Amino acid sequence: MSVDIRDLAGRPVIIGGGIAGLTTALHLAPEPVLLLSRPPLGADASSAWAQGGLAASLGEDDDPALHLADTLAAGDGLCDAQAARHILYGAPAAIEDLARLGVRFDRTPAGVLRLGLEAAHSRRRIVHAGGDGSGREVMRALVAAVRSTPTIEVIEGVEARRLLVEDGRVTGVLASCSTGPAFLATGRVVLATGGIGGLFLDSTNPMGSCGQGLALAARAGAVLADLEFIQFHPTALDGPRRPMPLISEAVRGEGAALVDETGRRFLDGVRGAELAPRDIVARAVWKHLADGHRVFLDVRERPGAAFAQHFPTIASACSKVGIDPARDLIPIRPAQHYHMGGVAVDLGGRTSVPGLWACGEVASTGLHGANRLASNSLTEAVVCARWVAESLTGTPARRTKPAIASDCPSPDPTTVRPLLSRALGVLRDGEPLKAAARALLPLAERKDAASDPAAVGLMIAVAALRRQESRGAHHRTDFPLHAAVARRSQIALESAIAAAREFASSPMLESVA
Asked: What is the pTM of this model?
């Protein structure tokens, strides 16, 4: 580090250097702010890997009301309609903000934004940058803007390990850096730590994204919401690489087909076929694989020879395993992709713990419901970042006492991945979920590298057990139908541990290997 963290006490602290964290920091200017990033800024962030782009109603045939209707339909009855309305109606202005910051969006020769189509969208409304490199281009512009903003102090190579809470309020961040443990005294913290892909064996996200923000919030006493809703992308490149390369839904939006080893389009009987909501396509692919078939994406006709031009990132990933998409079928399978659940927040990003905000994938605004509509995630992060910054600015800074910095182990999800991958996949069942909760409980109660990932996994497993229905991305084979009333779920770490202890005292019908 080139600065002494102790000299920055009292500033708002943003934990995370993805799109949500960077945008929040920019909106806070000119107020001095401290941004903590575990990797070098812009590296190893899920935001930079995003291919699909940002959804916003910008076309002449589109309207925010149509975008809202598509979002509510995909969310399968569980979206917060008011929150979704506010976010989606703010999406067009957020795209303009990004363009002003220097994001080079794809445009027609006439200079009009080029809009793409993705599954479950009724209109072309996906704004891309660099073809399938949208996240990378947005991150490039945001990192440059942050680097040139003198009031934003970026500290790289720092990992937040705990939030200190006194009298129910956040008073600081315990962190670890190259020189050892450090304490940042602050009464205003923003979590922008991303998702949970690193908790699964098969994911399209950086393996270092293992729910750190959820663990920080939960151990600080915050309420979390809808943790059981985990989106599996139906088309990850099936091969040995981990994380698994993503094949964007935009490819199917341009006409690509899903076929099996016989060449049959096995989704022909599914409403919407290749452009059905992600949960439906993922389950159909999963079941077809379970029946002994192989599944491929066929892009030979559409987009055809232009594939590499439109999707250079995907074409490169295919080339590395000897596949030429213009001539060959692309083997695919579902992989963990996005977490609809997160820390429960209001539209200002405020959590249940005073002094703590959350933004981006780590937060649960209610926009996504039970199944995220494609390309709504980056839109949510950019729109909500402004509101988080406004809420934080309107909250007076509080004097906090210094504390002795103590070190906590860096989270290591290695032992947790097999447990969650088996019990919390595309299809779920009560007994394996209970077995996972039993196995995760002692890990969560320890004070070692596995404890935080295990605590997050435990909360997800208990939330999945409590939802005795199938809805959106949460499909229970033992409860295959919708409940009569759609209800959002809430959970705290303490209640998840209590529930797991009850499971531990009951006979184990199935073990987790």
From this structure: 0.94
